[in-house]
TrEMBL record:
Example GO molecular function: DNA-binding transcription factor activity
Keywords linked to the UniProt accession: DNA-binding, Repressor, Transcription, Transcription regulation
Entry-linked InterPro entries: Carb_Metab_HTH_regulators (IPR050313), DeoR-like_C (IPR014036), DeoR_HTH (IPR001034), NagB/RpiA_transferase-like (IPR037171), Tscrpt_reg_HTH_DeoR_CS (IPR018356), WH-like_DNA-bd_sf (IPR036388), WH_DNA-bd_sf (IPR036390)
Disulfide bond among keywords: no
Domain HTH deoR-type as annotated: residue spans: 10-65
Pfam families: DeoRC, HTH_DeoR
Domain of life: Bacteria
Record-given protein name: Transcriptional regulator, DeoR family
Keyword flag Ribosomal protein: no
C-alpha cells in the first residue's frame, strides 16, 4: 500500500501524480485525494491541468497513462484537421441515411461533420452524447433529439456514462454512426477511454446497423480502449483505400467499405 503524503504544493504534487500514473497505468480521483490528503476537487483541477499540458490523459473518474504520447486532441483542434477528407466522409455517410431514420451518434469531429451534412434530411430522430452536435445540428432535419448524460469531458466536449437507453429495451434505433480513434485488423475499433469505449459499444448495440466513420490516418492504429472487433460493424466510410491487411480483415468480417468521392 502506498504511504499517505501530507498536503503538498501543486507543482510537486502534480509531478508525483505523473509518476504514479506512469507506474500504475491508471488511477482514480478518490485514490489520489486520499494519498495526497487533499480534496477531490483539488485533484480534478490538477488532473485537468496535466491533461491540458499533455502530461497524462484525463479519464472518467481519474487519469490514464498513454504510452508514446497518445493523448486526446481537443475537439476544436480536430475539427480543423483534414477538413476536406472529413467533409467527403460526412457527405458519403449522409447519403446512406433515409429520411425518418432514428440515429445514435457519438462525439467527434467527423461525426460532427456528418450531422452538418444531414441538413437536407427530414424527420430524423437523434440520440447523442456530443455537445457540439447538439449545438450545431439543423433543427429542421430532426423531429426528436435526445441528449444522453454523464460526466462532461472538456477536451472532447462529450458526456460519458452508462447509456440508460440501452437498458429499457424500448428504443428502436436504425443506425449507429460512430467516430473512432483507431481501426486495425488486430484490435478492431478503439478509442482513448474505457468508459467511452463502453458507451460507444452500447450505442452500437442499440442499432440495427453500425456505420464507422474514419479517415486514413486512423488505419492500423490502436488506441487504449477497444470498442469492438471488426465483425461488430456493418460499414466503414473512409477517404482512402485501407491498407491490404486491414482491407482483408474488413472483407473477412463482412464489413462493407465505402470510399468517399
Amino acid at each position: 500500500m502506498a504511504r499517505k503524503r501530507t498536503a503538498s504544493l501543486p507543482m510537486s504534487r502534480r509531478t508525483e501524480m505523473i509518476r504514479i500514473v506512469t507506474e500504475r497505468g491508471s488511477v482514480s480521483v478518490p485514490e489520489l485525494a486520499d494519498l495526497f490528503r487533499v480534496s477531490t476537487d483539488t485533484i480534478r483541477r490538477d488532473l485537468d491541468a496535466l491533461h491540458d499540458s499533455g502530461k497524462l490523459v484525463r479519464a472518467h473518474g481519474g487519469a490514464v497513462w498513454m504510452p508514446g504520447g497518445d493523448r486526446i486532441t481537443p475537439v476544436a483542434d480536430r475539427i480543423g484537421a483534414e477538413t476536406d477528407g472529413k467533409k467527403r466522409i460526412a457527405a458519403a455517410a449522409s447519403g446512406l441515411i433515409a429520411d425518418g431514420e432514428a440515429l445514435v451518434v457519438n462525439g467527434g469531429s467527423t461525426t460532427l461533420a456528418f450531422i452538418k451534412a444531414l441538413a437536407g434530411h427530414r424527420a430524423l430522430n437523434l440520440v447523442t452524447n456530443s455537445v457540439p452536435v447538439l449545438d450545431q445540428l439543423n433543427p429542421a432535419a430532426f423531429s426528436n433529439v435526445y441528449a444522453v448524460g454523464g460526466e462532461y469531458q472538456p477536451a472532447t466536449k462529450v458526456m460519458l456514462g452508462p447509456l440508460a437507453l440501452s437498458a429499457n429495451g424500448r428504443v428502436n434505433v436504425d443506425t449507429a454512426v460512430i467516430g473512432v480513434r483507431a481501426i486495425s485488423a488486430a484490435a478492431g475499433i478503439s478509442t482513448a477511454f474505457i468508459m467511452e469505449a463502453e458507451m460507444i459499444l452500447a450505442m452500437t448495440r442499440l442499432a440495427r446497423r453500425t456505420i464507422v466513420l474514419a479517415d486514413a490516418r486512423k488505419f492500423e492504429q490502436s488506441a487504449f480502449a477497444t470498442i469492438a472487433p471488426l465483425g461488430e460493424i456493418d460499414m466503414l466510410v473512409t477517404n482512402a483505400p485501407p491498407p491490404p491487411a486491414l482491407a482483408a480483415a474488413l472483407e473477412l468480417a463482412g464489413v462493407e467499405t465505402i470510399l468517399a468521392p
